[in-house]
Structure to design on (283 residues):
């Protein structure tokens, strides 16, 4: 009889992992870095969301985010080698962060068999991918086969991000000063979309409510064509708006579950306080 190998599951803190899932004994989350000047904080460990957004309001310059250090992954993989046969690591899109490359290099340097996956997405879908992988593994599937399946999952996810503050896009170099000034004067709210691992502008709306309704309209269109079981509404210190979106969804659809949670801080840095994201998977 074939012995089932013991598998560790790894991701980074760009993924939204609900508290009840963080306690899984085989799941390991490597924190990204957030820096204000020379001060570096470990995402989710050294700084809370409330502290982050207060600092962002107070600071003139935008904080910077960076992938975990190579040594963080080397230390983790060296430790895991003693307790696991192999691992599957699912990371934020390689087009948005160098985390995938660092994780891959650490696996090679430690000679630990890790299937390192570029999710080509971010946030909660990464957690959903890991949950699917865990289920496949519990059914006896081997790591390589699981990884091959998970690498194709990104095509099923729709991820829309409503930017909270144009100031953050300007400070981060995503828009220039003239675009920021015009956008602020006209009260323009850009909607971003994750497409094949890249962040793209989907549409621009004149008010935040119109932007929210634009995303809800897109969800309605997709719901007519596909089976959608869950929707994630994540926010950057905008819980009331997230709840309002949830209420609209559950009033209109009685066959979906809606999860509310915080946007990871490394993502909130770029969108700013008040950012919202809606994510769903089509089957």
């Amino acid at each position: 009889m074939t012995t089932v190998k013991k598998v560790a599951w790894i991701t980074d803190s760009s993924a939204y992992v609900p508290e009840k899932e963080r306690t899984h004994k085989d799941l390991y989350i490597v924190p990204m870095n957030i820096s204000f000047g020379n001060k570096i904080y470990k995402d989710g460990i050294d700084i809370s969301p409330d502290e982050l957004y207060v600092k962002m309001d107070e600071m003139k310059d935008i904080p910077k985010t960076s992938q975990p250090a190579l040594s963080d992954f080397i230390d983790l993989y060296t430790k895991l080698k003693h307790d696991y046969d192999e691992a599957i690591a699912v990371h934020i899109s390689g087009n948005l962060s160098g985390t995938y490359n660092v994780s891959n290099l650490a696996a090679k340097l430690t000679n630990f068999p890790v299937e390192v996956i570029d999710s080509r997405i971010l946030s909660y879908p990464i957690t959903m991918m890991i949950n699917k992988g865990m289920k496949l593994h519990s059914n006896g599937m081997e790591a390589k086969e699981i990884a091959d399946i998970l690498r194709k999952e990104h095509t099923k996810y729709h991820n829309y991000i409503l930017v909270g503050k144009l100031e953050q896009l300007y400070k981060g170099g995503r828009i220039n000063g003239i675009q920021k000034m015009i956008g602020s004067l006209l009260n323009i709210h850009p909607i971003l979309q994750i497409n094949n691992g890249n962040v793209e502008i989907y549409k621009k709306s004149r008010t935040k409510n119109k932007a929210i309704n634009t995303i809800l309209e897109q969800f309605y269109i997709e719901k007519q064509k596909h089976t959608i079981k869950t929707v994630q509404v994540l926010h950057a210190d905008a819980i009331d708006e997230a709840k309002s979106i949830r209420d609209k969804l559950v009033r209109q659809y009685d066959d979906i579950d809606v999860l509310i949670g915080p946007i990871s801080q490394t993502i909130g840095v770029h969108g700013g306080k008040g950012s919202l994201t809606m994510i769903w998977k089509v089957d």
